[in-house]
Structure formats: structure tokens, C-alpha cells
Design a protein that fits this description.
Elements: E1 3-4, E2 31-32, E3 63-66, E4 74-75, E5 85-87, E6 90-91, H1 115-119, E7 120-123, H2 127-135, E8 145-147, H3 158-161, H4 163-173, E9 178-182, H5 191-199, E10 203-208, H6 214-220, H7 227-239, E11 244-251, H8 260-269, E12 275-279, H9 286-297, H10 302-312, H11 330-347, H12 370-375
Parallel strand pairs: 3-7, 5-8, 8-9, 9-10, 10-11, 11-12
Antiparallel strand pairs: 1-2, 4-5, 6-7
Length: 377
């Protein structure tokens, strides 16, 4: 009988395990075959005969795969979100946030919602060209497009690939309104696009900050910028005239919930005029991934955290009902909502702002667009 190799945290990664996706016909597990697991084993080491092999799991490299999607605008009818269309330049996210509700979507692609989600990333290099074609359709009616609804449009690979920037160029050229949610100060690279759009009421930004504790932030979001850099991005955006608020999401019971007010205070000092929060959500595989993460990083608090989560989800770890999944139910959830509203009023983070303007939209010219070809007949 063979022994299973226990999953252990990897440096720079959020998920502990990499279980097969729920649609896969086989489940793969790592086993100890007796070679190289014992540091005292005199096997062939990396440098030659008889040298010890390194202990602990090896680093997990990032792999970027081209996504040959034929469309780029995703539609939704959810009453829980204030938009009906969005664009995600990437599938999977290298930030590695253990709680990311997009993780289960990786199973549709044949990958694990665990480590695969943060190491096997799908990029959409044709996103800008596809967007131009979709905006050029005669039946297209403009409403704000949301970027960063599933995965972060400014995750580390964006620095090199610049897919998000090319999407912004299309939206700028067509005077199309948009909203952005990100954890990254890389958004400041695109101030030359965002600031002029903001003056025309075409853009609004939310910066996600979940903790001011750098160590906790690194455990929760291994490859996201530090809290200080995010707050500085918030300050810089607002100083440049780009309306930027703070999103304290998710609030995790007994992990970061005690920071709600101090996070909002820091955002107010950075010039934010709006704020939002979401209670931790654990749909599908995230339940197991989050439980493993607690065991690895907060074993002393694991039982307490899970109990509090169940208290907010009618005894379960998740509830999918519209109107309840974002805020939860019960005494703890109600108290969190009251704390948020009180801080929002006290700090003036409920000022909002003028709605984005869709009336300025000008469809792009596409020489080979089917609608244009038909117009010649």
C-alpha cells in the first residue's frame, strides 16, 4: 500500500492543493514511491550522486495559454451586481487569492480550481479586436462595461501582455463608459487613458483592499501588491480626477473582519468617495480549498472561522440565493452590515458621484465588418 504525499503550501501561491476539476473523469493524487522524500535518502541529488534532495514542495511556475475565444463581452442578468456586461482579459489569476469566487470556473476548462487557477492562465490576445467588432454591431446599445468582475485585469502578466490597455484604448476611442475593479497599482500605468475619460464621466474605479497587515495580505493574496501600494494607487487616481473607491471584499470572520473600519478610514484619507464590502462566499470547490488554507495557515482558528461562516449561511458554508449571497444572514452578518453603514456615513464614503455617461458612444469603423458589407448591397 502506498502513502499519499500530503499537500503543503507553496511559496507565492494561495491554494494548498490541486485536485482535479469536477468535470474530469479521473482524480489524480501524489504518492510517495520511496524515492527522494527522506532527506537522508542517498539517491541522486540535483548536483550528483548521494546529495540530499530539497525538502518541501517545489515552486509552481506560471504558464500562459492563448485563449482562442470568439467573443469578449460577457452578459449577465444577476440582480446582485450593478452591471449587465463585462470583459475579462484573462481566465485564472496569478494573484492567488484563496477566496476568489472565480476559481470554480477553471473546472470548465479542464483545470483544477486549486493551483491550476493561479498557475495556468488563459490570456485573450485578440480581445481588443473582438471588442471593436462587437461594438460596431448595428444592434449594440452602450451601457458601462465592467472590467475585473471575475479575474483581475491588472494581474502581473498584464505588465507584459498589455491586453487590458488595448481594451481601454478601444473604449476611449469609442467614448464607451466602463468600470474597473482591481487589487493592483499597475492601473496607474494607464492614467493617460483613464484621466481624460474621467473628465467626460466615462470611468469609475474600485480598488480592493482586504487588510492593512502586510503579512496577512501576503497569506490571503500572495502575488497581489501590498496594501500600501493599493492605497497609494487609490490616492493617485483620485488626485488625477479618476473617481476611485474602496472595496473591502471579502470580509472573513475572525480573519480580517476586525479591520473593516480601519480599512475604510484609510481609504477616506486617500480621497475615496465610495466604498463597498462583500461577506466571504464559498461556492463549489472553494469550500474545500478554503478549509485546507485555514488548516495550513490558521489551524488554531479553523473551527471558529467555519462556525462563524455557518452562522451567516443558515448552517451551511454557502448559500446561492440572490440578495443573500453577498451579505449573508443572521446576527453576525447583520452586525457587519451595521458596522459598514455606520462607518460609511461617518467617513462620507457614500457620496457616490454622477452616473457614467453612455450618450457619448460612437461605434468604431470596421472595414470588413459584416454589417458594413451588407450595407453595400
Amino acid at each position: 500500500m502506498v502513502d499519499l504525499i500530503p499537500d503543503k503550501p507553496r511559496k507565492g501561491r494561495g491554494a494548498v492543493s490541486n485536485a482535479s476539476g469536477r468535470y474530469e473523469p479521473f482524480t489524480r493524487v501524489a504518492i510517495d514511491d520511496g524515492w527522494g522524500q527522506d532527506p537522508g535518502n542517498s539517491g541522486f541529488g540535483e548536483q550528483g550522486f548521494g546529495e540530499d534532495r530539497p525538502s518541501g514542495p517545489s515552486p509552481q511556475p506560471t504558464e500562459v495559454i492563448w485563449d482562442a475565444t470568439r467573443s469578449v463581452i460577457t452578459r449577465n442578468t444577476s440582480p446582485d451586481v450593478p452591471f449587465d456586461r463585462s470583459i475579462n482579459p484573462y481566465r485564472g489569476c496569478e494573484h492567488g487569492c484563496i477566496y476568489c469566487f472565480a476559481r470554480p470556473s477553471h473546472a470548465w476548462l479542464g483545470y483544477s480550481p486549486g493551483l491550476d487557477f493561479e498557475t495556468k492562465l488563459l490570456a485573450k490576445p485578440e480581445a481588443a479586436a473582438l471588442l471593436r467588432r462587437e461594438l460596431a454591431r448595428k444592434n449594440y446599445r452602450p451601457q458601462p462595461i465592467a472590467l475585473g468582475t471575475n479575474t483581475d485585469p491588472y494581474q502581473p502578466i498584464e505588465k507584459k501582455l498589455q491586453i487590458t490597455r488595448r481594451i481601454l484604448e478601444v473604449l476611449r476611442d469609442t467614448s464607451h463608459p466602463l468600470t474597473i475593479v482591481t487589487k493592483s497599482n499597475l492601473i496607474l500605468r494607464d492614467l493617460d487613458i483613464l484621466a481624460p475619460m474621467a473628465r467626460r464621466r466615462l470611468v469609475r474605479v474600485m480598488i480592493s483592499v482586504t487588510s492593512l497587515d502586510r503579512q496577512l495580505s501576503r497569506i490571503m493574496e500572495p502575488r497581489a501588491p501590498t496594501p500600501a501600494r493599493r492605497l497609494e494607487a487609490l490616492r493617485t487616481l483620485n488626485a488625477a480626477g479618476v473617481p476611485a473607491g474602496v472595496l473591502t471584499a471579502p470580509m472573513i470572520p475572525a480573519i480580517n473582519d476586525q479591520e473593516l473600519e480601519v480599512l475604510m478610514e484609510a481609504a477616506a484619507r486617500a480621497g475615496a468617495a465610495s466604498s463597498g464590502y462583500v461577506l466571504l462566499r464559498l461556492p463549489l470547490e472553494i469550500k474545500e480549498l478554503f478549509t485546507e488554507w485555514l488548516e495550513a495557515h490558521f489551524p488554531d482558528r479553523k473551527s471558529k472561522v467555519l462556525k462563524l461562516i455557518r452562522d451567516t449561511r443558515d448552517g451551511g458554508l454557502y448559500q446561492s440565493d440572490f440578495g443573500r449571497r453577498q451579505r449573508g444572514t443572521g446576527v453576525y452578518a447583520d452586525l457587519l452590515a451595521q458596522r459598514f453603514k455606520a462607518a460609511e456615513r461617518r467617513l462620507g464614503l457614500n457620496r457616490g458621484g454622477a452616473p457614467l455617461d453612455s450618450s457619448q458612444f460612437e461605434p468604431p469603423e470596421i472595414d470588413d465588418h459584416p454589417d458594413k458589407q451588407l450595407s453595400l448591397l
